[in-house]
Amino acid sequence: MADAAFRGYERAMIEIMSACVQMRFSFRRVGAMVRRYWYLLSSSWPRVLDLVYWPTVQMLMWGFLQLYVSQNAGFFARASGVFIGSVLLWDILFRGQLGFSISFLEEMYARNLCNIMMSPLRPTEFIAALTIMSLVRLSIGMIPVSLLAIAFFGFNLWSLGFALAAFFANLILTSWSVGIFVAGLLLRNGLGAESMAWTIMFLFLPLTCVYYPVAVLPGWLQHVAWLLPPTYVFEGMRALLIDHVFRGDLMIEALAFNLLLFALAAIAFAMLLRSAREHGTLLQTGE
């Protein structure tokens, strides 16, 4: 009896260890997915052009508007760079989420999502690969545009230094959180939810006060705005460019909200993925 119990215990331990090995996060699998997306991106010049086109158009449009206003209003002359800074930071937020979602959508367009979910690739590894590609796409789009802002308007985003790093970290965390949630919706609802990938971030545009201070909003709406991490970033950007003060307290509060938002997005993704498996929607990626 003792030998049988010991053998049963031994088998159970082996199964547990085997399960742990299988659940181990694999950087090789993440790297394989990143390489796949990189080949897809680099082999298509329209995809690369799209990453640069819209940020350039927005930067030029708002830059020339700011140039006109600054020549006719003392306040905006003192607050030089506010419009262009807002546009560039908004593009980090929007393009970060879009870069994440587009890589995910390309798997659905290719009818490859079911194959990925049946492979050894873990959901966490899949998300890690999507976040890396989000950074790659964002870099391709934003670095040339930031250099054009210097050439056309003398606004150097990189001169913000540590403040830029704090702004970027908080904005990219928000964009990934939204991207993860949208990915869960796409898993559960198929391409019928595709419009969410393109439009959901614009719901944040009026509430995060990209182009104006929070004080402009009605009192009750200000409480809603302060629940969104990007609001702290754009308020911090205006404080830096207008008052030349870096608001570290705003960045810490934004980070706290971002960690909560990221955790909620991860939980929502796990629940939506489980629901998709139970309802068989992984095999039905159409509309």
Output the keywords.
mainly alpha, 12 helices
Determine Rg (CA atoms, Å).
22 Å
List how many beta strands DSSP finds.
Answer: 0
Mean pLDDT: 81
Oligomer: single chain
SS-based structural class? mainly alpha
Low-confidence regions? none
How many angstroms separate the termini? 58 Å
Shape: globular
Strand content: under 5%
SSE topology string: HHHHHHHHHHHH
Summed up, the domain count is: 1
Number of helices: 12
Helix content: over 70%
Query: Quick one: biggest sheet?
Result: none
Task: Note the topology.
Blueprint: H1 2-23, H2 27-42, H3 45-70, H4 74-78, H5 82-109, H6 113-118, H7 123-153, H8 162-189, H9 194-199, H10 219-225, H11 229-242, H12 248-279
Helix pairs in contact: 2-7, 3-5, 3-7, 5-7, 5-8, 5-11, 8-11, 8-12, 11-12
Structure description:
- The chain has 287 residues and is mostly helical.
- The chain contains 12 helices and no strands.
- It is globular.
Explain briefly what this protein structure is:
With about 290 residues, this protein is mostly helical.
